[in-house]
């Protein structure tokens, strides 16, 4: 059986509905999985008309009655958006509420095993805060509603994979969170994820926290006191781990295939090289011509992959958003779901 993939619609004022429709217009998606969108059917109907698409919407209230037929998008209809009031590219409590409820519902469906994996379109943090939900992002919502305490963000694109010791915290907090136990935890999560993706003996590189990876204590001692002990413990467990490396050279080698996965110490240390590799800017058209990369939350009892970009409010409603990342996110969800069933 093809895995059932639940896709949360994301912020309806962003590009989520557009990239979902563009992706589900591809027959190859239906050849490999049974996709179900969770969100507001009226929003998707409106987007289909805007894109001059021939796709149809099948609004449902139960996974059991989904058609899973190419040409018709099954939507678990939450009916929580007034499309007359929805403004593309505008932050609003209504849009934040709709995005949050879609994520919560797709988590519930996965926990109930009505779907095999979840994929999330981007939400806007300001909008969900306006709606009264004080989460810093998808990862934290998933952790809360799945009762997960040990989790991490993995970015993946082809053979380039980056996991983070910390994510949505201040840089000052990120330095304080660089501790041996946490570094070892994310190394373990990364190693397990690589194995599940078919890599038998993953080669893992660990970045330093400080410039030049501390230069033997000249520019900070976190490498000596926290990171190296974690690497030594990981290797004692039978993993293949090297470092800590200066990140400016480590990521260059990783992109060329020297490592199967990298450990970044904080959000931007991992995101900047990853997006430099996967995002392509068209200077003439002043827009992104390609946006690749998947965000995978590790440590959860359910599968969650996501596009690794935001709501792109600046181009919402224009029909020019790239669906590359959504397609790759679905591909990863399919692979992980099939592995889990083995």
Can you describe this structure?
This protein is α/β, with parallel strands linked by helices and about 350 residues long. It has a 12-stranded mixed sheet, with helices on both faces. A hairpin with a 4-residue loop joins strand 11 and strand 12.
How would you sum up the global shape? globular
* Regions with little confidence, pLDDT below 50 for 5+ residues: none
Helix content: 25-40%
Q: Count the strands? A: 14
Strand order of the largest sheet: 3-4-2-1-5-14-13-6-7-10-8-9
The sequence of SSEs as H and E is EHHEHEEHEHHEEHHEHEHEHEEEEH
The number of helical segments is 12
Distance between the termini: 12 Å
Q: How would you briefly describe this protein structure?
A:
This protein is α/β, with parallel strands linked by helices and 342 residues long. Helices cover 39% and strands 20% of the residues.
Please outline the helices and strands.
Layout: E1 4-8, H1 16-24, H2 27-32, E2 34-39, H3 41-50, E3 56-60, E4 72-77, H4 93-111, E5 117-120, H5 125-130, H6 138-145, E6 152-157, E7 160-164, H7 171-176, H8 180-196, E8 203-207, H9 222-236, E9 240-245, H10 247-255, E10 261-264, H11 267-278, E11 279-282, E12 287-291, E13 294-298, E14 304-307, H12 324-341
Helix pairs in contact: 4-6, 8-9
């Amino acid at each position: 059986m093809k895995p059932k993939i639940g896709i949360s619609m994301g912020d309806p004022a962003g590009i989520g509905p557009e990239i979902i429709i563009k992706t589900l217009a591809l027959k190859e998606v239906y050849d490999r999985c049974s996709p179900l969108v969770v969100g507001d059917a009226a929003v998707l109907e409106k987007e289909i008309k805007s894109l001059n698409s021939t796709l149809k919407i099948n609004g449902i209230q139960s996974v059991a009655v989904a058609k899973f037929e190419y040409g018709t998008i099954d939507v678990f209809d939450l009916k929580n958006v007034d499309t007359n009031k929805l403004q593309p590219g505008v932050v609003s409590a209504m849009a934040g509420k709709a995005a949050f409820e879609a994520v919560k519902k797709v988590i519930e469906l996965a926990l109930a095993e009505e779907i095999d994996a979840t994929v999330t379109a981007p939400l806007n943090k300001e909008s969900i805060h306006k709606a009264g939900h004080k989460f810093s992002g998808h990862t934290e919502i998933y952790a809360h509603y799945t009762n997960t305490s040990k989790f991490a963000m993995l970015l993946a694109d082809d053979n380039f994979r980056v996991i983070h010791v910390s994510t949505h915290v201040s840089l000052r907090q990120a330095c304080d969170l660089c501790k041996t136990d946490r570094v070892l935890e994310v190394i373990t999560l990364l190693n397990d994820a690589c194995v599940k993706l078919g890599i038998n003996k993953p080669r893992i590189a660990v970045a330093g926290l400080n410039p030049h990876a501390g230069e033997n204590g000249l520019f900070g001692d976190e490498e000596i006191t926290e990171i190296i002990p974690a690497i030594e413990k990981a290797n004692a467990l039978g993993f293949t781990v090297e470092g800590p490396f200066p990140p400016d050279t480590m990521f260059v080698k990783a992109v060329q295939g020297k490592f199967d996965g990298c450990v970044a110490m904080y959000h931007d240390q991992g995101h900047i090289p990853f997006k430099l590799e996967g995002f392509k800017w068209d200077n003439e058209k002043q827009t992104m011509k390609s946006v690749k990369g998947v965000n995978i939350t590790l440590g959860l009892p359910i599968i969650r992959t996501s596009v690794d970009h935001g709501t792109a409010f600046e181009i919402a409603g224009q029909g020019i958003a790239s669906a590359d990342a959504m397609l790759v996110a679905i591909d990863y969800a399919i692979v992980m779901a099939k592995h889990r069933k083995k």
